[in-house]
Amino acid sequence: MAAPDTVGTRDSLFEVEEMELAFGPQHPSTHGVLRLDLKVDGERIVGCYPIIGYLHRGTEKLFELHPFFQNVPHTDRMDYVAAATNNLAYVGAVEKLTGLTVPPRAAYIRTILCELQRISSHLLWLATHAIDIGAMTPFFYTFREREEVLDLFEEYCGARLTLNCMRPGGLPFDLPVGWTDRCGAFVDKFPAKVDEYEGLLTHNRIWKKRTVGIGVMSKEQALQYGVTGPMLRASGVGFDLRKATPYEAYGEVDFDVPVFHGGDTYDRYLVRMEEMRQSTRIVRQCLDKLPDGPVMAKKPRVLKAAKDTEAYYAIEGPKGEIGFYIVGNGTPNPQRCRVRPPSFYNLQIVPELTQDRLLSDLVAIVGTTDIVLGEVDR
Amino acid sequence: MAMLESLRDLVGPAVFDHAVSPLIKIAVLIFVGILPLISYLVLAERKILGFMQVRLGPNRVGPWGLLQPVADIAKLLVKQDIIPSTAIRWAFIVAPCLVVAPAFVIFSVIPFGPAASQTGGSLDYFVTDVNVALLFVVAMATVGVYGIILGGWASNSKFSLLGGLRAAAQMVSYEIPQGFSLVIPLLMAGTMSLQGIVQAQFEQQRWFIFQGWGLGLVAFFIYFVAGVAETNRNPFDLPEAESELVAGFHTEYTGMRFALFFLGEYANMIVISAVAVTLFLGGWHQPFPNAGWAGFLDLQWIPVLTPPLGLVGILWFSTKLAAFLFVYIWFRGTFPRYRFDQLMELGWKWLIPLVLLTIFGTGVWKILQ
Q1: Which CATH code fits A62-333+361-371?
Q2: Contacting residues of B for A139, CB less than 8 Å apart
Q3: What are the domain boundaries of chain A?
Q4: Of A46, A56, A52, which is closest to residue A17 (Cα–Cα)?
Q5: Which value does ipTM take for this structure?
Q6: B104 pLDDT more than 80
Q7: What pTM, to 2 d.p., does this model score?
Q8: How many CB atoms lie within 10 A of CB B19?
Q9: Residue of chain A minimizing CA distance to B233
Q10: Which of A33, A317, A335, B226 has the CB geometry, 3.0–4.6 Å to A329, for a possible disulfide?
């Protein structure tokens, strides 16, 4: 599977001077404001040091300043291309802390929203990843479908990116009339669109040359670094929180967790493509089974967590395990809120994967980790 | 025409034929032919890419965005021209000119239409017919790479330098298969004059792409692949790979200087396509020029304005050229980008051996003729 490493090491006959290259934060393919301090020998990378913090907004501190329900919008702005899953991880943690139970209809709608979010996040990833590798057209195709997902979000909660679509105890609103039909129409046609993207890329010789065997991450490496999500599942570990600890409606729907064993950029691509198809299956089943009833649990007027209680709640976001650890102090505000963002952990392995690779591979590898700096820096 | 005749009388036929007439042709070629062609090629590229990518492309300036090139040029002309303070000034200024000038010079030997002797008129539809035109094309195409290396080096920016180095290696490597692939039509035609090669295809009653046991097709393929690499176009656009090197060798260039690099790239696209049309696709001849049933393709039946043969030649040449340029744009809409070492591998390990074999095969074919 893995192509031989074509990048040899330079013999030491000549004195070689390494060049330092500031790759970012103003660089087209660092996905926001990541800065990589590179040491390059020609185009070969001999050192790579990610420098983060350009988007640090003190989100975790901000959580302490507001009551539980006012903190949901902060989570939108962490992984700003996957707000729904952030919302769910946060409100899930609050519910776990305060002992709220979500009505079944709300659980189903949350599942639908999260899977639509996964689709839109993966579409954005595919767009940028393809453009990093030089394929320009998938960008426009994926944005065509992403637009439809965002339209569905907009129709539901009025926002397209920063959704703020969940509350501790349930959802702010029920679905608008006709939403389920439109959502159903989208998920029914979407797998064909995934085939279309795959038609451009999957068997493209150049695409395979650029991704197969590039940035190979072994199972052990992945586990050591705490890598989660599609990155982990491409390295042969079939760990998915949706299956491992089923939350919301995931226990009641049937879906597969795609696992590949190559651990390279190409397999990570395949995992995400398959995940998009599985997401449509989940949404379809949820729409069919959608129960009636309220979407908000009965809850006290002011939600307070008891003193010295703590809860960690994690869900499977599009990029991996997104978890919130919240400590209560008897007031409506959390004492402390700590976030476990998947991108932060996934980013850590980039220097190891890029060692002795070429500059072009670096771009492919950074693209394949699917980082969002809003989440890395918080 | 009458004006030209009187000018000819005024300066004398010798001076007119060797100095004045070429100058007029060059001026017409550049200002009426190439420059508008390039600016509208850019528009066409954006439109076609837009069509391929489910979007509209330029549509604000003029009907269907037809005045977009004018707006672009006006913008580029009035942009502030920045020369980085650490740049090597003279090289920074010379580099864009070195890219554009050779590309334009090559147009002087390309036969866009028939010679005066063939149409019975008094006008050659080309600037000059040199007997070593093919060598001239190869030589001039090589000069362009200096501009890119120089630009990358003179900018004194790391990304520019990497882009320049990539360009140097890439263009030098791909010149070899490209140069060799030109040998095949040369062997088939037995002349280096481009006009001569067009005539040879007419006389052999076959485009060279279909000549010689399919060897012409192989040569054409190699020429085109190497040509795409020569012009730094997708999927070989590594020297300016925006996701890797920001903008490669022209990262630090602004305004008109940047536009010159841009102009050079598109002029080179046209040159590569024009040479391919001339060498492999029968040049300005209509398709099936010797077949009776295809005679209507000479367009002489258009009742109102029977076009002169020269113009028909130009029309067919342009049609073939446009088909080529479309393929260039199509590539850009389809392919990801090669990695640097993979590009080198393709050039040295595949194209060069292949082209050498093809030359050998063509030699055998020629002997057996």
Answers
A1: 1.10.645.10
A2: 53
A3: 62-333+361-371
A4: A46
A5: 0.78
A6: yes
A7: 0.84
A8: 11
A9: A134
A10: A335
